[in-house]
Every structure is written in structure tokens, then in C-alpha cells.
Specification:
The structure holds two protein chains of two kinds.
Chain A: H1 2-5, H2 8-26, E1 49-50, E2 60-61, E3 71-76, H3 81-85, H4 87-95, E4 100-105, H5 109-119, E5 126-129, H6 133-137, E6 145-149, E7 155-160, H7 168-177
Parallel strand pairs in A: 3-4, 4-5
Antiparallel strand pairs in A: 1-2, 3-6, 6-7
Chain B: H1 2-28, H2 36-62, H3 69-74, H4 81-87, H5 92-113, H6 119-143, H7 167-170, H8 172-182, H9 184-196, H10 201-232, H11 243-268, H12 272-295, H13 308-332, H14 347-377, H15 386-406, H16 417-441, H17 447-464, H18 477-502, E1 504-510, E2 515-518, E3 521-532, E4 536-547, E5 553-555, E6 558-562, E7 567-571, E8 573-577, E9 580-589, E10 595-603, H19 606-642
Helix pairs in contact in B: 1-2, 1-6, 2-4, 2-5, 2-6, 5-6, 5-8, 6-9, 6-13, 8-10, 9-10, 9-12, 9-13, 10-11, 10-19, 11-12, 11-14, 12-13, 14-15, 15-17, 16-17, 17-18, 18-19
The chains are: A alpha/beta, B alpha+beta.
């Protein structure tokens, strides 16, 4: 009896190790779920036609994105604080000759005008996405996000979050590659 | 060149560990005595060589050498230098290299400094340490090479997980690893002693300082990790029962039990088999913890890579080492002599109860941690959290600390129950008074914090009792160590109970200009601003808090978004006052321009980590005391021999 007791620890450990082994080989492999990547990267933008977000400026439509030249599409909002932080980087990209269009999510024209007056306005066209439908359709989970769309309207690159100075080379490279 | 040099050093270290194992084996065989002198130098050299390999990896990270795959995947040229440095172990391969480095350095330390242990036991110990090292070198070289090159080299790296970009966290993993892996020494000692059948008081005295060192690092690592989670994760909690926290708690529980049973073995020659068992269990818990974290089978902030092959490799090593040690245990432990006996009312008995209770807590935590894996095997996804752990481990832990308070007041071998009642009367009265006071002044507290608040003062008084009527200047350091560590437990317990019982929480969506109340504090929401850091952008809430009519203080919580990889983190603002902390976290904004603010007033929460630091300090004092006494004892032995 006493002899058997000495082997109990070994038996217990072997059962535990068997459990660990089963967990290792039968567990569903879960992916990194912290960042919601768009499933639309590599696909053409869905059809949409957004009304102008500010008076006197063009709105944004999917047709405009298929006219042969690569664009950045910045998804932003005047109520979004990180969007203010990335304004300087968008201005820099615009200065380097990158055309930038925008989708303003759930915004009011007067707020948007104030935002553009304060933080600069590098955008060619700004579409008003009042009910977030277009934002969700192109696979953006939040603001700000920036997409590189090539001349045929295909999404080539997605940048999640505000653009910092360190991100500029990556985005420039993605834009160059889309030409 | 640096990467190739590092890899060459790693191979060299692996070869040295093979040599160390072979020499140890040969030296213990009949006729192998002439090999004995070589084992120590080889162990020291192995420690040095793998240390250099680790320095090479740090150097690659500091230079951001993007032609090395590991650096490219985990670093970024824009990162502050501290995080480049810490990035060396903030990933799977680097942390495994740190793991074997600590293993080999600890082995080298034993080879250099251990003079009390019988020579053949020491050689068996070093051979066992080399055997563990060999398996993990193989894992690094064949399954997780940190020095792999990338061709062509990318223009920019991926960046370190932003949650890990925090100065406190830069040094959290090395501290924890010294404890985690340092406990391997206890395992190797146990295996060595089983091989040479040398389980006795001298062996226990030799092993004790090594266990103490590892235990001090574990205590510090767990305390610091808890504080990091508290201020970095922005949930305001200090212990989440996250699988990885449990993975560090379980070796600590086993090492704490070992520390006490080894004292019984050293002083009274009892608990022989049990001490050996605990030494094996403590390091097994470390290895299982490593496996849980590194295989990614449990989701956690600490999981770097999900790779079943690597997991299988570590699992194989686990089976080999734990299984091997337990087979040796089953075969050899019967040949270990019976220890001395003792009465029911005695310090040994209190230590045995302490050991059993620690083992029960360990078992409960272990079951809770692994249970999700068991149900997963049957196709159900569940997670086990605080409702389970607090309910089952809490009460046992409270009994445990009560026994801890009584134990040091008992005499070795046998004691008188009547005398004991007299000795514990003051602590018991203190606890009863505290219970009454809390019930009267603050009715309606849940029973677990209530018992904690009641027990803490009594335990504090009982912890100091061993100093009673002693000449304080002549009191040995290890008595001081015990007193300080036990007092630390009481302090920590008071902090946990007070925080759980009296916490005040406010969650609001506020606009600038509004004032929010939490506890006695008025917090004015001044404004919200965008802020840009070197590799992140954030929204920062600017708040001014004041207590009653006291002087105002600024609070600046941030909600950060790191650019590479894009990850949101919460940087809480914490104002520390003498009687607690005001904790503010900022959340998402809505379209009306309101910002989510979460405020907590946590009375005496700082005692939790203060107590943790005291526990580690107590361990340190005990270590000094033991080393000094052993040194003196050794000199006496030598004098006797020369006389």
C-alpha cells in the first residue's frame, strides 16, 4: 500500500500532462483579435454615392475612386480626437502629392467646417456618411482609418488608427505601389 | 556578425551542458573520482557563455538590426531605447533565451558558491541542472532560434506590443524569471539528493539559501506584475486570476511551502520525502507555467505566439523532466530514512498544517486554471474567473494566515496547549475588537473582506510576537526576516480587505466643465486634448481633483493608440494619498462630445504592494541571516577539523 502511494504523484502528473496535450492538439487556433482587419483589402470598393459633407465641395462616390488614379480615403470625424492628431501627417502626405478623399462619419456640417478651419483641410472631396453604412461596407471598424485605393477602385492597404510621422513612409510606399 | 556570434555561443553553451552532464555522470560512477574537479568549472563556463549569447541579442535589439528576424518582428527604429532593450525579452524566442540564461547562470552560481553540500550530491545536482538546460537549448536551437536572419531585411520593424511598452514592465520579466527559473536549483538539489541518497539536515541547510533567493525574486516579480496590471490595464483591479498570473502564483505557493518544510528538515530532520516532493513540484509549476504561456493554449496578454509544434516540444520536455524526477522519487524515496517525530501541538505540526493549506490553495488555483482546457476538450468554451477563485481560495487563505500567525509562537517538538492559549490571547482580542469595530462602523460588508479586516491586526500583532522579550540587537537576522515577512502578509491582507470593502466607483459620460464626485473627492473635468508621443497618439482628459476643501491636484488619464502595431491602451492617472489612491481612466467618446470617465477611490490599496515588498524584504533579511550563520558554522567546522 505504502509503495503504491509513492507512485500517485507520477500518475497525477501524467493525467495533467495528458490534459495539456489534448488541449494543445485539439484547440481551435485562435487568431489575433485585437485588430479588426478589413476583409475588403484586395477587393474593389463597394458601390456608394455620398452627398457632400460640407457645402460647396464635392461628395464622394465609388465611381470617383475608379477614375485611374490612386487615392487615399481617410475615414474621420470632427468629434474624433485622434483625428486631430493625424491632421499634420495628412497635410504632409497631401504636400507630397498624394490625393486624399475623405469619409466623414456621423458628422454635422458646421462642426466639420470648424474642424477643417482649425486643423487644416487636405481633402479633395468629403462624403457625408451619416449612418456609418459606407464605413462598415469598406470594412472600417473605427475612426480614424485610412485606405489606399488604386486607380481601379481596389483597396490596396488599410491603416488603422491615427497616422503618425513614422507611418508616412509605409503609406507613401503603399500609394506608390498602387500606381 | 553579432547574430552569428550569438548563435555560435548558444551552440557552445549547449555543448558545455552536454559535457557537464556527461562529466557528472562519469564522476558519480565507481572509479570516476578524477573527473569530479572538472564539473564546477564547466558549469561556471556554461553560465558565462550563455550570458554572452543573451548580451548579443540585447545588442542586436539596441542597434535595431532589422536583418534579424526577431528584431524586425518585435522592434521598431522609433522606439525609445529602453523598450528596444526590453524588447529583447518581450517576445517568444528572446524570453526563452532569457529562460535558459537564468537556468545556466543559477547553475553557475551553485558551482561557484555552494560549499556546504556533500561533493557527490553537488555533482549530481549540477548534472541534473545541465540535463534541464540541454533540453531547453535543443528547444531554442531547433524550434525557436532567436538569431535567425531575414533576407532581404525590411525597412522597418513591426514594433513591440504596446502593452509591454512601460518602464515597470521592462524589468518585470527578468525579475520573475529569476524566481521562476531560479527555483530549478531546488529541483536539481532534490534530484541530486535522491541520486546520492543524501536527504538530511545538512542538505536542507545547503538548499535553503537558494530557495530563498528564487522566492525573493518570485515575490518581487508577482508584486511588481500586480502593480503593473493595476495601472496599465486601466481596469483598476490588482489581481485578475489571469492564467499567467496564476502561473506565477503557483510556483510561489509551492516555493513558500518548500521554504517552510526545508526549515523543518534543517532544524528537526523531519518531512524528508515531503520536502523533496515540494522541490520537484515547485519547479514543475514553473515549467507548466512556461508551457501554458509559451504554447498559447490559454489566451493572455503574455502569449506571444500560437504554435502547437513549439508547445509540443515544451510538453515533451515537461514529461521527461517531471516524469523522470517522480520516477526517481518513487524508486528512491523509500530508502530515505524516517525523520524525527513530533507532537500535535508543536511548531512542526503548525508548519505541516501550513504546508497542507498552501498545497490546498495551490491545488485549487491549479484546477481553476486548467479547467477551461478540460471543458474545451469536450467542446465547451468557458473561462474561470474571480467568482471561483475568490470563493474557494479566499477562505482557505484566511485560515492559512491564521495558522501562520500562531506557528512562530509554538516550540519545536512539543508544546503545551494551555501556554499557547495565553500567548495568543492578545492577537485574538485585537482581532475580535477589530471585527466588532468594523461591524459597528461599517455594516453590510461582504464576509470575506470583513474577516480580512478582522484578522489583519491580530496577525500583525502575532507576527511581532517572536521579538517579545528578546534583545533586539542580538536577535538573529533570520528571526527579523520571519517577522518582517509575516508582518508583510498582514499588511497586504489589510490592503486587500480594505480595498474590497470600502472601494468607491463612479462611471460617467461627462463633458468638459462638469464636476464628478467619487467618495470624498470632487473631480472637475477641465478639457480634453489630443496628444502625440514618439510612437503613439492619445486623447488626454485634463482633470483637477480635490478632497473637500483640500489643495487641488491634476489628473491626466490618456487613452492611447499605438501606431505599430495599432493597439489601444489606457494610461490611467493615479493620485496617491497617505490613505489610498484616486484612480481615473478615460474611455471612449460619443457623438455628443461626452467622454467616458471611470473613477475609483481605493482606500489603503497601496498596502497590498507595500506588504508584498515587505515579504520580499523579509526573505532578504532571512537570506543574510542564514548565509552569515552558515559561514560562521563552516568556520567552526574547519576549526574543529584543524584542532
Amino acid at each position: 500500500m505504502k509503495r503504491l502511494i509513492l507512485w500517485v504523484p507520477l500518475a497525477v502528473v501524467m493525467v495533467i500532462l495528458a490534459v495539456l496535450a489534448s488541449a494543445l492538439f485539439f484547440s481551435p487556433t485562435d487568431s489575433n483579435d485585437r485588430v479588426v482587419r478589413s476583409a475588403m483589402v484586395g477587393h474593389p470598393v463597394p458601390d456608394f454615392d455620398l452627398a457632400p459633407a460640407v457645402a460647396g465641395r464635392p461628395g464622394l462616390s465609388s465611381a470617383a475612386l475608379r477614375q485611374g488614379q490612386p487615392h487615399l480615403v481617410n475615414v474621420f470625424a470632427s468629434w474624433c480626437v485622434p483625428c486631430r492628431a493625424e491632421a499634420a501627417q495628412l497635410a504632409e502626405l497631401s504636400r507630397r502629392g498624394v490625393p486624399i478623399d475623405a469619409i466623414a462619419v456621423r458628422d454635422r456640417p458646421e462642426d466639420l467646417a470648424a474642424f477643417l478651419a482649425t486643423y487644416g483641410d487636405p481633402f479633395r472631396a468629403i462624403g457625408a456618411d451619416v449612418d456609418r453604412r459606407v464605413q462598415l461596407d469598406i470594412g472600417s471598424a473605427g475612426v480614424p482609418e485610412t485606405f489606399v485605393v488604386d486607380g481601379h477602385g481596389v483597396i490596396r492597404h488599410q491603416h488603422i488608427g491615427a497616422i503618425t510621422e513614422g507611418d508616412i513612409p509605409t503609406i507613401m510606399a503603399a500609394w506608390q505601389a498602387a500606381r | 556578425m553579432i547574430a552569428e556570434g550569438g548563435l555560435a555561443l548558444l551552440w557552445l553553451a549547449a555543448a558545455l551542458s552536454l559535457l557537464q552532464l556527461a562529466l557528472g555522470w562519469g564522476a558519480l560512477r565507481p572509479g570516476g573520482e578524477h573527473l569530479r574537479a572538472a564539473v564546477r568549472p564547466v558549469a561556471v563556463t556554461q553560465g558565462l557563455v550563455v550570458g554572452l549569447a543573451f548580451l548579443a541579442l540585447i545588442w542586436l535589439f539596441l542597434r535595431t538590426d532589422l536583418s534579424v528576424k526577431l528584431v524586425a518582428a518585435n522592434s521598431h527604429s522609433l522606439k525609445p531605447w529602453l523598450y528596444k532593450f526590453a524588447g529583447a525579452w518581450g517576445n517568444h524566442e528572446g524570453s526563452m533565451l532569457l529562460w535558459v540564461t537564468v537556468l545556466a547562470v543559477a547553475g553557475g552560481g551553485v558551482a561557484l558558491f555552494e560549499r556546504r553540500l556533500r561533493q557527490d550530491t553537488l555533482i549530481a545536482t549540477l548534472a541534473a541542472q545541465a540535463a534541464i538546460g540541454l533540453g531547453f537549448y535543443a528547444f531554442l536551437l531547433f524550434a525557436s532560434n532567436p538569431f535567425t536572419r531575414l533576407n532581404p531585411a525590411p525597412v522597418e520593424g513591426n514594433g513591440l506590443n504596446p502593452l509591454l511598452q512601460d518602464p515597470g514592465l521592462a524589468f518585470h520579466p527578468p525579475t520573475l524569471y529569476f524566481g521562476y527559473v531560479g527555483i530549478s536549483i531546488a529541483f536539481s538539489f532534490a534530484v541530486g539528493a535522491l541520486i546520492t541518497r543524501d536527504v538530511g539536515p545538512a542538505f536542507a541547510r545547503a538548499m535553503r539559501p537558494w530557495v530563498l533567493v528564487a522566492w525573493i525574486f518570485l515575490t518581487l516579480g508577482i508584486t511588481a506584475g500586480s502593480y503593473w496590471a493595476y495601472y496599465e490595464l486601466g481596469w483598476g483591479g490588482w489581481w485578475f486570476w489571469d492564467p499567467v498570473e496564476n502561473a506565477s502564483l503557483m510556483p510561489w505557493l509551492a516555493a513558500t511551502a518548500l521554504l517552510h518544510s526545508v526549515t523543518v528538515l534543517a532544524t528537526r530532520a523531519g518531512l524528508r520525502a515531503w520536502t523533496i516532493m515540494l522541490a520537484v513540484v515547485a519547479f514543475s509549476m514553473s515549467m507548466i507555467g512556461t508551457f501554458l504561456v509559451r504554447s498559447g493554449i490559454l489566451t493572455s496578454v503574455h502569449a506571444f505566439a500560437v504554435d502547437p509544434l513549439r508547445g509540443a516540444f515544451i510538453l515533451g520536455l515537461l514529461t521527461l523532466y517531471i516524469g523522470g524526477a517522480l520516477i526517481l522519487f518513487g524508486l528512491r524515496v523509500r530508502t530515505v530514512k524516517e525523520g524525527s517525530t513530533f507532537e500535535i501541538v508543536s511548531r512542526e505540526a503548525a508548519l505541516v498544517i501550513n504546508n497542507l493549506l498552501l498545497s490546498v490553495v495551490l491545488g485549487l488555483v491549479f484546477i481553476g486554471t486548467l479547467y477551461p482546457l478540460v471543458t474545451q476538450a469536450f467542446g465547451r468554451e468557458i473561462s474561470v474567473g474571480p467568482p471561483y477563485f475568490n470563493a474557494v481560495a479566499g477562505p482557505v487563505a484566511l485560515i492559512l494566515v491564521a495558522v501562520m500567525a500562531i506557528g512562530p509562537m509554538l516550540r519545536w517538538r512539543r508544546d503545551n496547549l494551555k501556554d499557547l492559549v495565553g500567548r495568543i490571547s492578545i492577537p485574538v482580542l485585537l482581532s475580535a475588537a477589530s471585527l466588532l469595530l468594523v461591524v459597528l462602523l461599517a455594516p453590510g460588508i461582504r464576509w470575506l473582506p470583513l474577516l480580512g479586516l478582522a484578522l489583519a491586526p491580530g496577525i500583525a500583532a502575532a507576527s511581532i510576537a517572536p521579538l517579545w522579550k528578546r534583545n533586539l540587537r542580538r536577535t538573529p537576522f533570520f528571526i527579523w526576516g520571519m517577522v518582517v515577512a509575516h508582518l508583510g502578509i498582514a499588511v497586504s491582507l489589510a490592503g486587500m480587505a480594505s480595498e474590497s470593502a470600502f472601494i468607491k466607483e463612479t462611471l460617467v459620460a461627462a463633458s468638459p466643465g462638469q464636476t464628478v464626485r467619487v467618495g470624498d473627492f470632487n473631480v472637475h473635468f477641465d478639457s480634453i486634448e489630443p496628444v502625440v508621443g514618439p510612437n503613439w497618439t492619445a486623447i488626454e482628459a485634463r482633470l483637477t481633483g480635490r478632497r473637500g476643501n483640500g489643495s487641488p491636484f491634476a489628473l491626466r488619464p490618456q487613452s492611447r493608440l499605438f501606431s505599430s502595431p495599432p493597439t489601444p491602451t489606457s494610461e490611467s492617472a493615479i493620485q496617491t494619498l497617505w490613505d489610498g489612491q484616486l484612480y481615473v481612466a478615460v474611455g471612449a467618446q460619443d457623438e455628443q462630445g461626452r467622454t467616458q470617465l471611470r473613477l475609483w477611490w481605493k482606500p489603503f490599496v497601496t498596502l497590498i504592494w507595500g506588504g508584498g515588498a515587505m515579504i520580499a524584504l523579509g526573505g532578504f533579511l532571512a537570506l543574510i541571516g542564514r548565509v552569515r550563520r552558515e559561514g560562521r558554522g563552516k568556520r567552526k567546522d574547519e576549526e574543529e577539523v584543524t584542532a
